[in-house]
Structure formats: structure tokens, C-alpha cells
Amino acid sequence: MKCVVLLLSLLSVGRSAPVSSCDTLINPITVNTDEILGKWMYVGGSSDLPGSRSLAFLLTSAWVNVTTTANSNVLNILQTQRINGDCSSMTYDVVFEDSTMLIKEPFYLKEVYLPTGCSDCILAHEEVISGNDTFTSLLLFSRKMSVSPDVVETLKKEAECLRMSSPIMMDPNNEICPDNLPPSEGLSILNSLLENKMAHRVARVLDVLFDVFVNW
Ligand SMILES: *[C@@H]1O[C@H](CO)[C@@H](O)[C@H](O)[C@H]1NC(C)=O
Ligand SMILES: *[C@@H]1O[C@H](CO)[C@@H](O)[C@H](O)[C@H]1NC(C)=O
């Protein structure tokens, strides 16, 4: 009996080892343009962008719609979010080739994709460089409003592997914003947020307070 138990546990260790090894989890996967197009719900993630942790408290839902443009390696992203009850929408173009999303101006963004164990999800691992600052984000999107607990566990493990803070998940019951909002030009908005050092300092303090008082 003991032997059987031992054997079973060895088998299960043998099976789960590759799945949970950091090398496998943080190794970027191949993603084709067709796979990335369309509407995605933001389900949760982790970021060291200043303010992202306190913002996650006010951000109750977000989705993106990825569409093609006349240029075959350029995609358009329409991003809509509900922050503190208000819906807003912005749009920007990105270069997408070799399973990598790129923005070169006015800041640098590079996004690759990691495994999720969920067939209708996409997990973006993003690096943003603005001036001398580098920020990293891990963002999980799904075609559905929510994902199964094991997908959340994998995400947590991936954040750990990347030495990032624990992911903050959206509440799938939150109301999402409608499709027909007039979008603003997104890159200039994002860039002014990235370049505002004073706001970074305030946001970092908010993030620390948030982690201490709200998210512990
Ligand atoms: C980046 O760092 C260098 C060296 O510390 C400094 O001279 C430069 O002004 C910084 N650039 C920005 C945009 O902060
Ligand atoms: C996403 O974009 C496509 C192409 O413009 C459009 O047909 C579709 O209705 C959009 N979906 C949403 C949710 O905005």
C-alpha cells in the first residue's frame, strides 16, 4: 500500500514538475495575429508601474479590442476601462510581428506572451521603458469574464517566477463599459503618465499604502 502511494506521488510529481517549473512558465510562446485579434476581457495581473496597485482598486473592469489596419504588421488597440465608476476609452496602433508587440514612440513597449493553461486566454508580459525608467507588467486577458482557479494559480506562480508582486484579480461580476465610447488618442495619454515623475512619487506612496492597508 505504501509503495502504491509513493509511486502515485512520484508519478504526480513527475507530471506536475514541467508545468510548474519557472523555465517553462516564463518562456514566451508563439502567438499569431489571428489569435490575438478581437475582444479580450482583462481578468487580472501584476505591474510595477507606479500607481498600478492603487489603480487596481479603482479599476473595476477593462477590455480591449484588437483589430487589423491597412498595414499588415500594424494592429489597432481599442482599450476601454471603468475607473472609479467612469468609463473611458483610448486607441493606439502597435507593431505586431514574430509573436511580439512593440511600441517604439513616444515610449518603448515590448510585449511577449506566456503560457496560461487556458485555451481562450492570453497572458502578456510587458516591458515599458520611459526615459531611464523600466517597468514590467503581467496582464491576463480572456475571451470570457472569468477564468478557472487553476489559471489564477498559474498566473500567481508566473508572477513569483518573475519576482513580481502578487496579481490582483478583477471581480468578474463588475459591470463592463459599453462598446460605443468615443476613444481618445492613447499614446499621448500613456506617455504623459509615464513622464510625470511627481505623479510617480505620489503613486508609489499610494501603492505602498494600498498594499499595506487594502491588499494584505
Ligand atoms: C537618465 O540618467 C542619466 C544618467 O543618470 C541622466 O543624465 C539623464 O538626465 C537621465 N534622463 C532622464 C530622461 O531622466
Ligand atoms: C472590435 O472591432 C471590430 C472591427 O472594427 C468590430 O467589428 C467589433 O464590433 C469591435 N468589437 C467591440 C466590442 O468593440
UniProtKB/TrEMBL annotation:
Answer yes or no on keyword Coiled coil. Answer: no
Q: Listed GO cellular component terms?
A: extracellular region
Principal localization? secreted
Compartment list: Secreted
Q: Where is the signal peptide, in residue numbers?
A: 1-16
DNA-binding in keyword set: no
UniProt keyword terms in alphabetical order? Glycoprotein, Secreted, Signal
Which InterPro entries does the record cross-reference, listed alphabetically? ApoM, Calycin
Name the PANTHER family on file: ALPHA-1-ACID GLYCOPROTEIN, ALPHA-1-ACID GLYCOPROTEIN 1
Q: What is this protein called?
A: Uncharacterized protein LOC102192540
**Organism, scientific name:** Pundamilia nyererei
